[in-house]
Structures are given as structure tokens and as C-alpha cells.
Design a protein that fits this description.
alpha/beta, Glutaredoxin, five-stranded mixed beta sheet, 4 helices
Length: 163
């Protein structure tokens, strides 16, 4: 059993509302957390865009940013995000997931809920992500890990952490 799934309900840049009750109900979800002003954030979005090309719709990719919905839409457009980004103006969702810094990411699986939270990403975390998805009955993703960094990529600490 993984960490507890936080309670949340937030609008995303695709116009949908994502919540703890709906996210992951139709298949695996990888969530990446973004600090809006962090200089590492664009690299994380680029990585998620590459990952989306690699795995298509086998896993839903979603971002969470510490901005209101209007700013989140501008943020997504500015960084050419090809996946929805959840607006989390008060950082309660980010805090609920216990994400500490930009580029942390979490795996959510049907029936299992929140499975794992990783600090940053690299080839090793993506290999672990693939293994967890497969172990829990998801697809065999076969990500071309050479397209991702070997060194762990992590960003700025979240400034509005709530307890």
C-alpha cells in the first residue's frame, strides 16, 4: 500500500475538474508537480511532452502547478505543455501529495490509488515507474530511457507548503 491519496478537486487547463475520486479511475496516471517560477520547470515539461510521445495514451500524464486557472493556462501555453495542468493556487493539492519540489512526480493506479512519490525524475525513476505500472496490472510501457537524463532532475522547493 502506498501513501494516502490526498483529497482534492481542482480545474485543469483542459477544462476538466480532477479530483481524488476520479483521477486514476480509468487507468494509470503520472502526475508531475511544477513550481511556477522555477527555472527547472521548463525541462520537466519537456520531459513530460517526450514521455507522452513515448507512451501515448497508455498512461494519463497530468501536471500540477501552484497557480490559479487563468495563470495555469498561460503557463501551459508558454511552455507548450501537451498534457493538462491542474491549477492549484493555494498549493493544497501539492502539499497533500507531499511534493517537496518542482519535478517531483507521483503514480496513481486504479484500485491502488497513490502508489508512489518520486523526488525529481531520471532514467532510474522512469524505470521504476514502468515496473510499478506493470506490477499493478497496467501496460508494459517500454520507454526509451535513452531519451531521458541519467542524473536526477529536480527543481525549486515549493514555497507555500501547508501542513
Amino acid at each position: 500500500m502506498g501513501p494516502a491519496m490526498p483529497h482534492f478537486s481542482e480545474r485543469a487547463t483542459d477544462g476538466k475538474v480532477y479530483s481524488d475520486r476520479t483521477i486514476g479511475s480509468h487507468g494509470p496516471v503520472l502526475v508531475m508537480f511544477f513550481e511556477a517560477g522555477c527555472p527547472h520547470t521548463p525541462h520537466g515539461i519537456d520531459a513530460m511532452n517526450r514521455l507522452k510521445k513515448e507512451i501515448g495514451n497508455q498512461v494519463t500524464l497530468v501536471g500540477v502547478v501552484n497557480l490559479g486557472i487563468g495563470q495555469a493556462k498561460q503557463f501551459a501555453a508558454k511552455h507548450y505543455a501537451t498534457f493538462p495542468i491542474i491549477a492549484d493556487a493555494d498549493s493544497k493539492t501539492i502539499s497533500g501529495f507531499r511534493a517537496q519540489a518542482s519535478l517531483d512526480n507521483a503514480l496513481i493506479m486504479p484500485k491502488a490509488g497513490l502508489v508512489k512519490l518520486w523526488t525529481g525524475y531520471n532514467q532510474a525513476t522512469l524505470r521504476n515507474f514502468e515496473a510499478e505500472v506493470k506490477r499493478l496490472g497496467g501496460p508494459d510501457l517500454r520507454i526509451d530511457l535513452a531519451k531521458f537524463p541519467t542524473d536526477r532532475q529536480s527543481g525549486c522547493a515549493f514555497m507555500q507548503m501547508k501542513s
